[in-house]
Amino acid sequence: xxxxxxxxxxxxSVIQFAAHQGLDVEELCFKVGLDPIxxxxxxxxxxxxxxxxxxxxxxxxxxxxxxxxxxxxxxNVGNYGIVGYVASFVAVPLLVALSK
Length: 100
What we know:
By secondary structure, this protein is mainly alpha-helical. The protein is built from five helices and two strands, in the order βααβααα. Strands 1-2 form a two-stranded antiparallel ribbon. The protein is globular and about 35 Å long. The protein starts with a strand and ends with a helix.
């Protein structure tokens, strides 16, 4: 079975958030076995094992056990291009419709 993957946009966003928290991006990528050049490719898919390793390493280095919450507060759906942009306008009306 093929390993699941994540959008490179999401992994890149986590790494950018980590950089904003003061972490060294090159060191982070080295520790999780991720070539930083991969993050510059718009449609790149990241193996789930690597994506999860990024999260674990960022939590370890920051000591922030609520990292997911803090990342969510700062997350920009625009990182997902047109899909994220459209989803940001559809999500609330969709939730309202589903709640009826």
